[in-house]
Give the backbone structure.
Amino acid sequence: MTTPPLAVQVRSTVLGAGLLGRLLAHELVSLGHHVDIYDKGGPEGTESAARAAAAMLAPLAESVITEPSVVRMGHYGLTRWPQIIQTLNQPVFFQQNGTLILWHRQDAHEAKRFSSALHRNHALMRYLGAPEELTSAGLQALEPGLQGNFQQGIYLPGEGQLDNRQLLAALHSTLVQRGVNFHWNTPKSLEDFGTLDSLGSSDSDNWLFDCRGLGAKPSWTGIRGVRGEVIRLYAPEVTLSRPMRLIHPRYPLYIAPKEDHVFVIGATEIESEDLSNASVRSTLELLSAAYTVHSGFAEARILEISTQARPTLQDNLPAIQQLGPKTLQINGLYRHGFLISPAVVDAALDFVRTASHDKADAFGVSFTKP
């Protein structure tokens, strides 16, 4: 999606250089804005929830545990991400090989409930690929690397994933190349740019965007962190070609294969902003579950065990708040950051271009005005 640049250059300031901040800056530059980004951390994004994510793009799989608006935004994101990646100056791994849902015999009852929900949701959202029930033979044909460990599965065609860290790096490199000024290790608040009454006054061409996630807590009531724990493995003996979700007694565990035999494993959700090291219990559960999917994970090397807190609003849905004529706060990506961020950013850009929140309404993104 391309938009002709503005005749008069507009200056925009973005607070927060996580996924949302970088993606928004990328699109603002395409509009002809001159952009400054402030972030409390460095370019690697180690303090961003996006760095610890699996970056799966699975709207139908998520439909079982989220709202229809997230599914609509996720379907939109599957179209937008290839367009965005094509504009970057570095390659980003992206695939659309579908998602595979698996379960062990003892979890067959939960799998039946999950399958019913998938079919029911697909009936309401026909734009999504229909779920396909697979037997052991079907699984073997689709994913030989499973070694015959499962007797049944569900294939969700058309779903995808990308490499989150490659994307963050490519966005940073492209933005630098296009003249964006990054101010690393420079935390800023809205108050650093004036009072709420003066922020982004209507007679100014300058815009201010707050994309700080949990960093916006002092000025946005209701933001909370949901802790997630993720393990990255190097497993040269494992050959899996698409993301997999293992129905688990406590949470739907996922295994996302990246390039060069790197796998991202995770799914824990804990109502906490504690960023201390991962617990033994979570680590054992994640690694044990991965081993039951493929025995080759026993010889894998642990590259990293990371924890992060996802910025989440009270209803677990994203929202945009207008604080002044040209000041927006954008937040609440929760566990769906890579899935929905293109839609959320495009909804914000629609307001920048037209002063309308029609696109936000169409996506189901809450848009509140002063």
In short: The longest helix spans residues 68-86.
